[in-house]
């Protein structure tokens, strides 16, 4: 999966990599350091825009869809689009209401990174509790190195604990500290349900885990239905939550660790707009680029699961992020921290049936 995008000379030359570079965020070299850095302009004319496809479809039912795009004949509350050349790939624009987006953004920041769910921070700091609230309260994670008394050599532990900024930590020697807001910014992924072991690139069923929350299961089952064989119901068993800040990318990869590829991956976009690349079975195949906006759902099942895909770009500037409606919804007093986060971030929740 993610680790598989080892950058070597060959992969640097593939069609997928070239397209990633085309859309990736670069800054123009500004001679005068006083001027604000400006993103290099990028030609977006070839990026498929399912929002405008959907809008013209809803306005006028017999609209001619762009070449290669079809509307799926199914009983679903919203129009579902497919690509003629990519069986098993489905795009549901604006599938989630603003209220649903609001809810899943909050859950992604508060409850999803809670242990026993693992995050990218586990490897360095162990299990971290209450990250979002600690960031809100401007706390600092401090590595406490216990002073070893004679005879207590075995009790030597490194333990990370929250402290308020001005709080000296007890009778210990503090060696390192990092602010919660930096850790929140550096949160890259969390895993729900069955835990994925990135080092072994497989699910480790022996790791402690909770079931996927019922409400998320319900959404995933409903959204998966256009890609499911008639009479079968999607069984959400694991989910990966990806957190993107400006300049972050998700390199081209396959999600090939689940047993049954006929079942879809249900992928929800939240926050700032992104570009998604859908490639072929080889990195040498030219990928298609499409916009992903907050509330969009992508399904990848069957043959589509053999296609390389990734995120080369998220847009965090007000003009391109397209989160005005969402921002308005985060208007409560308690919403300020969420709003600050999501204005410059994107969250993706992708839900999987593992067996
Ligand atoms: O962020 C996205 O939309 C795609 C995520 C993805 O492909 C993955 O987590 O495997
Ligand atoms: Fe993926």
Automatic annotation (TrEMBL):
Pfam families: 2OG-FeII_Oxy_2 (PF13532). Its cofactor is Fe(2+). One of its GO terms (biological process) is oxidative RNA demethylation. The keyword Oxidoreductase applies. One of its GO terms (molecular function) is oxidative RNA demethylase activity. Keywords: Dioxygenase, Iron, Metal-binding, Oxidoreductase. InterPro entries: Alkb (IPR004574), AlkB-like (IPR027450), AlkB-like_sf (IPR037151), Oxoglu/Fe-dep_dioxygenase_dom (IPR005123). One of its GO terms (cellular component) is cytoplasm. Binds 1 Fe(2+) ion per subunit. Residues 235-355 form the Fe2OG dioxygenase domain. Fe cation binds at residues 253, 255, 309. Belongs to the alkB family. PANTHER family: ALKYLATED DNA REPAIR PROTEIN ALKB-RELATED, ALPHA-KETOGLUTARATE-DEPENDENT DIOXYGENASE ALKB. This is Fe2OG dioxygenase domain-containing protein. It comes from Lactuca sativa.
